[in-house]
Structure formats: structure tokens, C-alpha cells
TrEMBL record:
Keywords: 4Fe-4S, Cell membrane, Iron, Iron-sulfur, Membrane, Metal-binding, NAD, Oxidoreductase, Quinone, Repeat, Translocase, Ubiquinone. Belongs to the complex I 23 kDa subunit family. NDH-1 shuttles electrons from NADH, via FMN and iron-sulfur (Fe-S) centers, to quinones in the respiratory chain. The immediate electron acceptor for the enzyme in this species is believed to be ubiquinone. Couples the redox reaction to proton translocation (for every two electrons transferred, four hydrogen ions are translocated across the cytoplasmic membrane), and thus conserves the redox energy in a proton gradient. This is NADH-quinone oxidoreductase subunit I. It comes from Flavihumibacter fluminis. It is an enzyme of class 7 (translocase). InterPro entries: 4Fe4S_Fe-S-bd, 4Fe4S_Fe_S_CS, NADH_quinone_OxRdtase_chainI. The keyword ATP-binding does not apply. GO terms for molecular function: oxidoreductase activity. The gene is nuoI. It comes from the Bacteria.
Length: 179
């Protein structure tokens, strides 16, 4: 016996009262009615959302600095650290006149994460030496097509803090602001 919750089954013949099933029906109805007065466990998503755990790891964000320049230098450390091989990228050299777009001489011309592979472990965030990627407090929405789960650079880049400060703050989220 694994637990002490087992119950011996009483196999005595049913009485006339029991054969009417009325007590059993009344008992069942009383259980059902008692649930009307209990707090509803369901929530009206998406209008209502559950509070996430402080350590929740959601959708990735590619970060910019305070001047709106992309932090990522396409060093590839996040891709190497990723146990699911979900990250791919192509590096490019920054040209003259692009200093306002990219913080360093090298940047990710292409950066993709396959959310169907990703296990949201956060190792890419841990590996990044440039504070260029972190896992936010939102999650990848559902999609009918596999291609919809391949997130490109445009899907991942945080809004420019200079051009869209409100969207930037929203994307940064409470947890990252407290860091
Ligand atoms: S969270 Fe983990 S699995 Fe997902 S991309 Fe980052 S390292 Fe890979
Ligand atoms: S996100 Fe970070 S670790 Fe990944 S390529 Fe860019 S700078 Fe390197």
C-alpha cells in the first residue's frame, strides 16, 4: 500500500431507501450548489491576467541602449549557450554613418529565435556579455502556422526609447526596471 487513503468497499445489498437514489442525488446537488458560493478559479483572459512568478521567463527581447542603438554585437555566445539550438544569426559590419543605429562595430543583420524549440531556460540571457537579450514578462502568443513561431529581429527588438518611450517602458516591464 503506497498511501493510507485507500477505503474498503462496503458490498452489502442496497436498502430500499438507497435504491431510490434520492439521498445520493441530494448529496450530489448539495456539492454542486456549494460551488456557486466559492470563489471562481477561472479568469477572464485576456482582459484579466494572473500575476506571474517573479522568476517567470517569457518572450525574448533584444535590447537597445538609452540612445536607441542596438546592443547586440552578433558575438554568437547566446546561440552557443542555447541547449535547444533555437537561435540563429548573421553578423554584419557597421558602416560609417550607422553609429546611431548600432552600439558597436559589429551587429546582427539577422537574428532569429525559433519559439517552438525554445524551452525558456534563460541561458541566452545569462551568456550575453552586452545586456542585449533578456526574457520578458510576456509570452509568445498562439499561432496556427509553424512560421509564426520563428521570431525575427523586428519581432524581438525593443521599441526605440527615444522615439517610442511609452512602448519602450511597457516592453521593459516591471521586473527589468527594478534590476
Ligand atoms: S531561453 Fe534557452 S532555449 Fe530559449 S533561446 Fe534562450 S537559451 Fe535557447
Ligand atoms: S544577444 Fe548577446 S550573446 Fe547573443 S549575439 Fe547578441 S551580444 Fe552576443
Amino acid at each position: 500500500m503506497l498511501t493510507n487513503r485507500s477505503k474498503a468497499v462496503d458490498r452489502h445489498p442496497m436498502t430500499v431507501w438507497e435504491k431510490m437514489y434520492l439521498p445520493a442525488i441530494a448529496k450530489g446537488m448539495s456539492i454542486t450548489l456549494s460551488h456557486f458560493f466559492k470563489k471562481k478559479p477561472t479568469i477572464n483572459f485576456p482582459e484579466e491576467t494572473r500575476p506571474f512568478s517573479p522568476v517567470f521567463r517569457g518572450l525574448h527581447i533584444l535590447n537597445r541602449d538609452e540612445e536607441g542603438r542596438e546592443n547586440c554585437t552578433a558575438c554568437g555566445l547566446c546561440a552557443v549557450a542555447c541547449p535547444a539550438e533555437a537561435i540563429t544569426m548573421e553578423a554584419a559590419e557597421r558602416k560609417e554613418g550607422e553609429e546611431h543605429l548600432y552600439r558597436e562595430e559589429k551587429y546582427a543583420a539577422k537574428y532569429e529565435i525559433n519559439m517552438l524549440r525554445c524551452i525558456f531556460c534563460g541561458l541566452c540571457e545569462e551568456a550575453c556579455p552586452k545586456d542585449a537579450i533578456y526574457l520578458s514578462e510576456t509570452f509568445a502568443p498562439s499561432n496556427y502556422k509553424r512560421e509564426g513561431f520563428i521570431y525575427g529581429k523586428n519581432d524581438l527588438l525593443i521599441p526605440d526609447p527615444k522615439k517610442e518611450p511609452e512602448l519602450y517602458q511597457k516592453a521593459v516591464g516591471e521586473r527589468a526596471r527594478k534590476k
